[in-house]
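#struct-help
A.M.: can someone run this one for me? Single chain, 249 residues.
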Amino acid sequence: MSLVDVSGNGLVCSTWGDGRADIVMLHDGLGSIAQWRDVPGAIHNATGRTVLAYDRAGHGTSTPVPTGPWPVDWLHQEAELLAELLDLRAVDRPLLVGHSDGGSIALLTAAGGRSLRGVVTLAAHAYVEEVCVERIRSMRAEAEGWVARLGRVHDEPAAVFEAWSGVWTSEAFRAWDVRPDLHAIECPSMIVQGLDDEYGTPEQAWSTAAAIGDNGTCVLLPGLGHLLHHEAPERIVQIVRGFERSLPM
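D.P.: on it. C-alpha cells below:
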C-alpha cells in the first residue's frame, strides 16, 4: 500500500503485481479497497495484469474527511482526480473497472477524452432513478446501523455516509444525467448489471450502453443484485478477464 498526494487529497493505493498498473479499480459510493475483497488479486491472477485499487478521499483511510453532502458535481470532480492519480502513477491506457459510483467515474473519465484500453462498469449509474433514491432514503432512516457496519472499513464512517447519501437524496442531484456525454467514449465499454439490482433498473444499464453507441455493450446478469463482486466474485473475474483479452493492445 502507498499514499499518494493528489491535489491535496491523501489517497491510499494498493497494487497487485509489478510495474505500472494495467487495470484500475474504482469502488462504489460507500466502498473502499477492502470492500473489493479478493477480487483485485483474482483479476491479477486471471489476467496476469498489474491491478491498482485506491480509496477516494473520505473513504477507508484516505483524506480529507467530507463535511456534509458532496457537491452535485462530485463525480466529475472525482474523474478529474482520477486523471491526476493516473498521471502521478504513470498509468498509460488502463482498463478501468468501476462499481456503482466508481463505474460512473470511469464513464466520465472515458467521456472526458482520457486514453483508455476499455471500461467495465458494474452496476454503474448514468442518471438518477427513483428506485435508487428511495433505496438510499431508506438507508438514511437506518443510518446508525449502516454507520456501525461501515466503521469496519472506514476511519470516518458517519461522514462518508452523510456525504454520499446526502447528495444522492438531494433535490439538486435529481437532474444529474450524463448520458448525453457518453457518445464521446471511444474505447470498448462493457456495462454490467444484475437483474435484481436494488439501486437500478435494467433500463439504467441498457440506456447507458445505448448512449455510448457502437462502443457500448450491455450485459444483464440474472439472479444478481447490486453487489455483483460480493455475490458472484468468480463470475465477475471471468467477465473482466474475457473482456480484457478481447481488447487491442
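A.M.: thanks! Residues 132 and 200 are 6 Å apart (CA to CA).
D.P.: also worth noting: The beta strands are 2-6, 9-16, 23-26, 51-54, 95-99, 118-122, 189-194, 216-221.
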